[in-house]
Amino acid sequence: MTDEFLLLNPGPVPLTDDVRRAMDAPLVSHRSAAFEATYERAQRGLDYVFSQSTLDGRTTGDGTSLILNGTATMGMEMAVANLTENDSEIVALVNGKFGRRFKRIAERHARATPVEVEWGESFDLDAVERAITGDTDLVTMVHNETSTGLLNPVAAVGELAVEHDALFVVDGVTSIGGDAFHIDDWHVDLAITDAQKALAAPPGVSAIYVTDRAAEAADGESAPFYADLDWHLRKAESNQTPFTSAVPLFRALAVAVENIREEGMDARIRRHHRQSRAFRAGFAALGLDSFPTVEEPTQLSNTLTAIELPEPVKAAPEEFFDAVGERNVSISGGQAHLGGEIFRVSNMGNLTTQQVLRGVRTVGEALNEAGIDCSVTDGVDAARQQLEE
Ligand code: PLP
């Protein structure tokens, strides 16, 4: 068992050596042919990741992968700001922190009608159906809600959006690159992902997939200057961004997405599902409960696991988190009001079987240290069984 630092937060995630090394090369100008080649490599890799998965095996065709000099929130705001006017009506689905972020962005740029449930609860699709009407211009939702570990039903909401001819913008930040995401079949007009999540690249840049329908609807004049979608699309034709690109991060992203292509999206998704099952089985064998309660068609996330802390640990959660940290492992607690209530562990990126098992072992040992009686061996064995399937 290695003592190397193990990052199991739901982003940023560990980098492979080749991705890290890619940032080390001598710098070039963001207006050079060398950079344009990097942009193109990253863009082709992203095309593969975004378009891997129409249900009937077709390739999603009519869109453009764009790389942004900013994290995923830039993509979320860019989508909303470019696709709406002040008086546009946005239905924003909220069941966690990132759904709420979309609602806040919607309120800043247009008129928002939230469909809101408690963090960690499934959406009532009847309520969503009532909220989306002929007056709705745009619907926002988060596919994989990182704050709670829920996989929200994008397909069902996409049907409702298309029925009312509303544009559909989906945050696939912690699903794309690690789980199935069907842009065409789910009627998604613009999808957002982040480098530092399942793509396993360093934080600082993100990517969006802009379908032709979204590109036609975009009005850069109404957007922040830095996030003018038309301008980004125009510059992408020559493999550049409108403003100075974060050259080392683009290089790292290019290698990360090429690694994904090498593994193959189908195999990668199967691995993520397997590793997520292993975490869940391991934690269940330690006597822990899943935090979110799911109702079909909502599912538990396949890229991160949110677990309710046992009651005695909730009284003094620092002891548990310190014990995890002392083992040179980093996991996340709950965000906002879920602080001290849950912990979250990611399996995004390129984790090995040993790293998953170390995650379960570490949580088990930290629980023991915090006074919880559980069998670390049972936890690790249950996880190993899933990984061997
Ligand atoms: N959306 C989701 C689902 C996320 O998990 C995150 C980050 O964790 C974001 C959006 C926003 O990312 P950032 O804060 O890096 O812009």
Describe the structure.
The structure is a single chain. This protein has 389 residues and is of the alpha/beta class. The protein folds into two domains: 6-12 and 266-388, Aspartate Aminotransferase, domain 1 (Alpha-Beta Complex), CATH 3.90.1150; 17-263, Type I PLP-dependent aspartate aminotransferase-like (Major domain) (Aspartate Aminotransferase, domain 2), CATH 3.40.640. Helices cover 42% and strands 16% of the residues. The chain has 14 helices and 16 strands. The chain has helices at residues 17-22, 33-51, 72-83, 97-109, 125-131, 154-163, 212-217, 229-236, 247-263, 265-285, 311-315, 317-326, 353-369, 376-388, and strands spanning 6-7, 63-68, 89-94, 111-116, 138-142, 144-145, 150-151, 167-171, 190-194, 206-211, 289-290, 299-300, 304-308, 329-330, 332-333, 342-346. The protein has a seven-stranded mixed β-sheet, sandwiched between helices. Strands 11-13-16-15 form a four-stranded antiparallel β-sheet, with helices on one face. Strands 6-7-12 form a three-stranded antiparallel β-sheet. A hairpin with a 4-residue loop joins strand 6 and strand 7 (150-151). It is globular and about 60 Å long. The model has no long low-confidence stretch (mean pLDDT 96). Bound molecules: pyridoxal-5'-phosphate (PLP). Pyridoxal-5'-phosphate (PLP) binds at residues 11, 71-73, 98, 142, 146, 171, 173-174, 194.
